[in-house]
Design a protein that fits this description.
Layout (H helix, E strand, L loop, with lengths): L11 E11 L3 H12 L8 E2 L6 E10 L3 H10 L5 E6 L7 E7 L3 E7 L5 E2 L2 H14 L3 H8 L2 H11 L8 E4 L1
Parallel strand pairs: 3-8
Antiparallel strand pairs: 1-3, 1-4, 2-3, 4-5, 5-6, 6-7
Helix pairs in contact: 1-2, 3-4
């Protein structure tokens, strides 16, 4: 029982999946994630057969709401990475999903309680307005807003990760 009168900080959980990272960057990536989580970690890398000279790893985390964004900012500067960072929704907080590929850059979407990426009314209106002004197909503009191109590019890297172990860190 909390008798101090101070409300405990909300905690969220999530995961990082790095699908491919050049072997020469592994120690730098580990340091960046450790700094973002404010916790010393040791990632367990395995080779990535789809990108020779690269590795892949997984990490589950807990932290304060918004930690996924902190992790995404820490990794987004490493151009050659392919990753998926998810923060699960919690009481009073939407979840977040960050996807990155070298060719598409960084994507961010909000995640609802069912795990789906959702678009707010304002975001849908902005996507429609932008598509119509640019003479762009509305369906493809909505697919981009939902992160479909990132999901499609990362899908082949997800296959084959089933046997990888998860590293758990509480931040």
């Amino acid at each position: 029982m909390n008798t101090s009168g101070v409300k405990p900080a909300a905690r969220v959980s999530g995961w990082v999946e790095i699908f491919s990272a050049p072997n020469s960057l592994h120690s730098h990536i580990q340091w960046s994630i450790s700094q973002a989580l404010d916790s010393e970690i040791s990632l367990q890398w395995s080779s990535q057969p789809l990108a020779p000279g690269s590795g892949q790893c997984r990490l589950r985390f807990t932290g304060e709401p918004g930690i996924a964004g902190t992790l995404a900012r820490a990794l987004a500067g490493w151009h050659y990475l392919r990753f998926d960072i998810s923060e699960e929704p919690s009481r009073g907080c939407d979840g977040s999903r960050y996807l990155a590929t070298p060719s598409l850059g960084l994507f961010h979407g909000y995640v609802g309680g069912s795990g789906d990426i959702y678009l707010s009314e304002h975001r849908v209106r902005a996507v429609l307005d932008s598509a119509l002004r640019q003479g762009r197909d509305v369906e493809s503009a909505l697919e981009d807003a939902l992160g479909t191109p990132w999901e499609e590019e990362l899908q082949r890297f997800r296959i084959g990760q089933e046997g990888m172990r998860w590293l758990n860190v509480a931040g």
